[in-house]
Write the structure tokens for this entry.
Amino acid sequence: MASGILLPQPLCLVENSPRKGLVVQQEALQVLSEVTQPVVVVAIAGLYRTGKSYLMNRLAGRRKGFSLGSGVQSHTKGVWMWCLPHPRKPGHTLVLLDTEGLGDVEKGDTENDTWIFVLTLLLSSTLIYNSRGTIDQQAMEQLHYVMELTEQVKLKAARGQREEEQEEEDPEEVAPFFPTFVWTVRDFTLRLERDGEGISEDQYLEKALALKDGSSSKIRRYNQPRERIRQLFRDRKCFVFDQPAPKRDLERLEELRDEEIDPEFQRQVEKFCSHVWEKSPPKTIPGGRIVTGSLLGKLAETYVETIRRGEVPCLESAVLALAQTVNAAAVKEAVKFYRDLMEKRVKLPTETVEELLDLHSQCQRETQELFQRRAFEEDIRSFQEDLTRQVEEVQEKFLRDNEQASRDNCKAALGDLSQDLVGKLRDDVYIVIGGYKLFKGDLQALVKKYQKKPGKGVMADAVLQEFLQSIEPLDEIIHKIDLALASKS
């Protein structure tokens, strides 16, 4: 999944069910778990029936994919995901998130609108906000979700404070964790000019975000959404789009041929797509860690579980939960890495314990380096201790296996070398005058051959001593018989 074409079509990531609420789809999590590349997550939000899905299909390089619908109600339910090879960043995966339209009056309960927006904001590295007509006060107030979000979602990771110590979010500290922001205005109805001179789309946005002087309640209401947007979305971009086709053809926009679509609209879409492809950054989380598909799936799962518990998603808690999962997996991977490395490099039995310990030290160092690359800094100490403990257990097993392999080799060597001695004992070769001296000479020759034999390992002396101790009763018997025979002669 990580290097080839991923999803041939979009897949539901988070279902918005009237009966169950928000539910992460296991099929989508399975797809993300197989994406090991860094992900560039581009999400779109905005009012329903404003053409969000069409823009996302074009970002996917397709005409069809995300459902456009043709009615007056939101057609996309929940959050839909499309994973594709990134068209401009080799080694990266582009994850497109199309979200349920905000403000669909037919839904009745719109509480999940806020949560879907929260998820979109927390999961994306670039957030596209799509509106229609112009950027006016109504459009600004439709972004009240941003203000609500920053009041609720405690990005404590930026401040390192306990929740009870935290009074109000500081936009200066929260902003780095927000995605880059692109405002797209569909069916734009104004001329891009000011005081009779042409202005850029970005200048139009900044003009719309300009604050008014004064302290009346009307001015405060005017300034509030603009202040929040300026504070939280430092990296801002604007694109405006003409109407793509006559109104009668809009319902079948995805089916229209190029010559049936307004050329200026096509140029605007190409400009928009190029910017998003080239400028959208990989998704990161506090600590500068780049998110992979598998981590993105875990983040989505963590956020949705938090919402379903009736709690507010917290970036610090999500990262900590993610760290627990990732670090546990990193420990498991590192222990396997250590075991495989030892099995590859260690040829049992080693001649000395020091030789095995030296190899252990090398493998342990490489294992720690691997763990550090895989693990999160959050709550890392306990996992480091667990890794050390498990590596020591594997090391102890290697020490035991080394001794056993040495013992087996030594016993086999002594078994081969002692065959002649055993045969002479069986044939009573040593039951003669001078037999004891003959026996001792054969035994000494056996020991010398044994000592020269390679590959005996760390138990060579111990096993030899055990062998000689087993011979001691025979040694005494042969010695007594030799003395008795000599006295009779």
User: Anything to note?
Assistant: The chain is about 50% helix and 10% strand. The mean pLDDT is 85.
